[in-house]
Automatic annotation (TrEMBL):
One of its GO terms (molecular function) is sarcosine oxidase activity. InterPro entries: FAD-dep_OxRdtase, FAD/NAD-bd_sf, G3P_DH_FAD-dep. Its cofactor is FAD. SUPFAM superfamilies: FAD-linked reductases, C-terminal domain, FAD/NAD(P)-binding domain. It is an enzyme of class 1 (oxidoreductase). Belongs to the FAD-dependent glycerol-3-phosphate dehydrogenase family. This is Aerobic glycerol-3-phosphate dehydrogenase. Gene3D superfamilies: D-Amino Acid Oxidase, subunit A, domain 2, FAD/NAD(P)-binding domain. Keywords: FAD, Flavoprotein, Oxidoreductase.
Length: 392
């Protein structure tokens, strides 16, 4: 038994758990993090490095993203270890009149919502040609968000953990949680087989496994794994330095109809292109509900490649070095859960799906403020109570 009684114990060592660990340890509280494998070995190691506003709905969702973007930019100077922070902005590509109309409306909604901060711009076909000579001729325009950035998610997780260790923080890897006992208000016992940890407060940041952790205290967590594929190119001349996506990506994210083949829609395939600092690039994406299956589906890989070539014809001559599939923690309303629960002292920070990297910083800050009773922002839209009538 670890005889120390921690102020806060975090379950899950992905990017969300790492961020919570850093921001909470920074307040002066004693913090422990339990990870069943190694830091960032799950979803956080099988994703891209988006820190995006462009794909967020105007309102609470976009305001949360803007706060997190500012924090991540601050972390790029605050953390000792670099994590390849770059701030190139991002683009949505529109392939038809319906998409361009919706895209331009998206720009208007966001710029109206954000007041003086006009992060969004409308792009014409000529603007696209000036941006990259590699775009397909069938594209008729697009939209741009100047506030978007890119990081290395694996390195950010390690950097946050490294910085947390400068405070009263303990990391326990290869330590799966097997049981949780709520002894009384202000005291928990968290078991990992024969090991026992004591804490005053516990945070469930277990991502796709957060429902399993919740069940240990009879709490239903409406998070479901959603599978996504990514291809990695060999080093090549970059097709573009910014994050580039097709506008149809928004449709696949929010489950809306779009113009694409039945196969593309069945697997939620939509172009996502991300240049890396090492001069290769990542290509996605797909969205499927297939349980916890992380096997690469070569049919999906073929569809992603076909979609990429449709938007970037020169990509047909590129070589790819590997592909992988990861699982994203999805919720029914596409917003994360950052919340207390019916069990006093037990909290949840999960369900970010593909937004976990970009929203990691604000999640860590808000959760640290919940631990110290200093939270001033209204985050009620993220309460787990909003799912009382939802079955997944």
């Amino acid at each position: 038994m670890d005889n120390k009684i921690y102020d806060v114990l975090i379950i899950g060592g992905g990017i969300i758990g790492a961020s919570i660990a850093y921001y909470t340890a920074k307040t002066g509280l004693s913090v422990a993090l339990l990870e069943s494998n190694t830091v960032a070995s799950g979803t956080s190691s099988k994703c891209d490095g988006n820190v995006l506003l462009i794909d967020k709905e105007p309102g609470f969702d976009s305001r949360m993203a803007i706060k997190s973007q500012a924090l991540i930019k601050q972390l790029s100077t605050e953390l000792e270890m670099e994590f390849e922070f770059r701030h190139p902005g991002s683009i949505f590509l529109c392939a038809n009149e319906d998409e361009i109309e919706q895209g331009y409306n998206w720009v208007d909604y966001h710029n109206k919502e954000n007041g003086k901060d006009k992060f969004f711009k409308k792009l014409t076909k000529e603007d696209l040609k000036n941006d990259s000579k590699y775009f397909s001729d069938h594209l008729i325009g697009g939209i741009e968000c100047t506030n978007d950035s890119t990081i290395n998610p694996y390195m950010l997780a390690f950097s946050l953990i490294n910085q947390a260790k400068k405070y009263d923080f303990s990391l326990f890897e290869m330590t799966p949680v097997t049981d949780i006992q709520h002894i009384q208000d202000g005291e928990f016992k968290v078991m990992s087989h024969e090991k026992v940890f004591k804490a005053n407060k516990v945070i469930n940041a277990a991502g796709i496994y957060s429902p399993h952790v919740g069940k240990l205290l009879d709490i239903e967590v409406p998070v479901v794994p959603r599978k996504g594929h990514i291809l990695v190119s060999s080093r090549a001349e970059l097709l573009g330095s910014r994050k580039i996506q097709e506008f149809g990506y928004l449709m696949t994210k929010f489950g809306k109809e779009r113009q694409a083949s039945k196969e593309m829609n069945d697997y939620g395939v939509a172009l996502v292109h991300e240049a890396t600092q090492s001069q290769n690039f990542l290509i996605g994406s797909s969205r499927e509900f297939v349980g916890y299956n992380t096997n690469v589906n070569h049919k999906v890989i073929r569809l992603i490649a076909e979609r990429a070539i449709e938007y970037f014809p020169p990509m047909k001559d590129m070589s790819f070095i590997r592909s992988y599939a990861g699982l994203r923690p999805w919720t029914p309303d596409n917003l994360p859960i950052i919340s207390d629960t019916v069990v006093p002292g037990f909290y949840i920070a999960a369900g970010h799906e593909g937004d976990g990297i970009g929203l990691s910083a604000i999640t860590g800050l808000w959760m640290s403020q919940m631990m110290t009773n200093t939270l001033k922002d209204d985050i009620s839209p993220l309460s787990i109570n909003r799912f009382k009538e939802v079955k997944v």
